[in-house]
Each structure stands twice: as C-alpha cells, then as structure tokens.
Design goal:
2 copies of one chain form a homodimer. Chain A is α+β, with helices and mostly antiparallel strands. Helices cover 34% and strands 36% of the residues of chain A. Chain A has 3 helices and 4 strands, in the order E-H-E-E-H-H-E.
Chain lengths: 97, 97
C-alpha cells in the first residue's frame, strides 16, 4: 500500500463559491482506476499554512503511476490544480517495517 | 474525528541503531489514552525533505488535548523528539463537509 497525500491552500477566499467548486470537482479523482480510500480533509493545525488535504491509497507503485498518468488526473492538474492552488506539499507514505 | 500527523526526519543516519531505537521508543505513544489508529510510516515522495511520519486519530479536540498534555507525551517530546528530530511539520486533519 502507498498512501498519496497532498496538503494545500487555494487562491480562492475561504467559503467562496470558487472554493466549493474546486473541492466538488476534485471528487472526480476518486473515480480514477486504482484510487482507494479517497478523502477530502480540512487542515486545522495553526502550525502550517495549509487549509485542505486530499488523501488516497493505491495497492502499489504501479497503480499509483496509472493514476498519475491517467488523462483525467492530467487534465485536473492542468485545468484546476495549477490555476487554483496557491501552495501545496505532497507527502507519500508506506507502512514502516 | 481529528487526525494528528507529523512528518519528520531524524538527525540519525538512515538505517542506524539510533534511528531504530527512536522509532521503537515512539511506539509507546500509541498507549497514551485517547490515541486511535496509530501508524508509523515511511515518507517516500522525493518532493519533500522528510523520511518518516506518525499518524494518529482522536475522537475530538478534547481527547487530542489530553494526549498533548499527558506526561508520557510531554516526556517523549522533551527527551527524544527535541534532541533527535532534525526537521518536522505537523498536519492535522478533520473530515471535510
């Protein structure tokens, strides 16, 4: 199992229709083959600058690559992520030991 | 539910006995009251500087505070975390919507 997470903040104002539209549109990522345990999260620690997170799991690295290269993911990154996200960090986890 | 996560790297060399001892010692955090779904994780994305992550869940903010103030957690931070961790970032999530 590999857990792909990204913590981010948007260019949109908090609570704006644009923010809601981005989050709603991103739900489609859950339907890309191989995506498991898809979560949309609110980041609540005051110790970093981010407001949201997405988390998803893949069976293995190959499944993660299929997602990464999938046309729906590529289009989402191009059409929504790059224009609308102000800052982000990707963190990928595998079980330890 | 609130999910408390911290992504970090150690001062110790990768694969060293000191690294193993830190990770082994940190498993005791799972026994502090209120801690659920405790995970020790390896961070594998090349897009950040961190090597490990811990993740745990609490029923609510009050349970998170009990953990944070618990003497075992306070002692772990003082005796292990501060001396042995080179860099870290805390990320806390709650379900969105």
């Amino acid at each position: 199992m590999i857990r792909h997470t990204v913590v981010f903040r948007l260019k949109h104002a908090a609570g704006s229709p644009e923010e809601a539209a981005f989050l709603s549109g991103a739900k489609a990522l859950a339907n890309i083959p191989g995506v498991q345990a898809f979560e949309q999260l609110r980041q609540v620690s005051p110790k970093n600058e981010y407001a949201f997170g997405f988390s998803m799991e893949f069976a293995d690295e190959a499944a993660y690559r299929v997602y990464n290269d999938h046309p729906e993911h590529v289009a989402f990154v191009r059409d929504r992520w790059i224009p609308e996200v102000a800052a982000f960090m990707e963190i990928d986890y595998v079980p330890l030991g």
